[in-house]
Design goal:
Layout lengths: L1 H36 L5 H22 L8 H27 L44 H9 L3 H27 L7 H27 L7
Helix pairs in contact: 2-3, 2-5, 3-6, 4-5, 5-6
């Protein structure tokens, strides 16, 4: 009789132990799932940040040329603003990607001790920046041939090519922002949302300013 009672007690405690183990395992799984659920970004968010780094880098290269290519004074001021602001935004985007263990392009070699001209190591041979391998070409960006044409220009010719190119460039950035927000669940991480909306608002204002500058340039000489 005592043996049967002890057996029942033993089985009862084994049942409790099994239940406790199951609960513990369930808790561990829930904790893991919760940790995985804390991922605060989508694949589209990553694509946007990576692509916008490349996009911004070209704008920095183009804008930095203004000081050595005879840009008129008001355009020179705008170029300095565009170059500095987009350089800073590249650093923000790189940090955002690195914090999430995603690949962060470095087309201007900002995170190295590299000095001097940046040489493109990709098959594109893009002036002034490294397009990576495989190279990334985002909407609105100038082709290598267009960049070489801009670099070879001076004075009013530079002003015109820069304004035409940067208006197209900014419109490409606006398209990238619109594409990001068109994807369900994307663009909602707070830091990314703020950056994307700031890019959209700021570049719309700059497009209007550049269009006014373009309209004020002297007429192109007859061919």
């Amino acid at each position: 009789m005592h043996g049967l009672r002890n057996h029942r007690i033993t089985m009862k405690w084994r049942g409790f132990a099994f239940a406790a183990a199951a609960i513990a395992a369930s808790g561990a799984f829930a904790a893991t799932s919760s940790a995985q659920g804390k991922r605060d970004f989508t694949a589209a968010d990553v694509d946007f940040m990576q692509g916008m780094i490349i996009h911004h880098a070209q704008a920095v290269v183009m804008s930095n040329w203004a000081a050595t290519h005879g840009a008129r004074s008001d355009l020179l001021v705008l170029c300095k603003r565009i170059g500095l602001s987009q350089y800073d935004e590249i650093a923000v985007m790189q940090h955002w990607l690195e914090a999430r263990h995603e690949m962060a392009p470095d087309p201007l070699m900002m995170r190295t001790k590299h000095t001097g001209a940046v040489h493109d190591l990709s098959p594109m041979h893009m002036p002034g920046m490294n397009m990576g391998n495989p190279p990334m070409m985002m909407g609105g960006m100038l082709t290598p041939a267009e960049m070489r044409q801009l670099d070879a220009s001076h004075g009013v010719a530079f002003d015109r090519l820069y304004l035409l190119g940067m208006i197209k460039h900014h419109q490409g950035a606006l398209d990238m922002v619109a594409d990001l927000f068109s994807k369900p669940g994307s663009g909602q991480q707070p830091e990314l949302f703020t950056l994307a909306t700031d890019i959209d608002a700021g570049q719309r204002v700059e497009i209007a300013r550049m269009q006014a500058m373009l309209n004020s340039l002297p007429s192109s000489p007859a061919p």
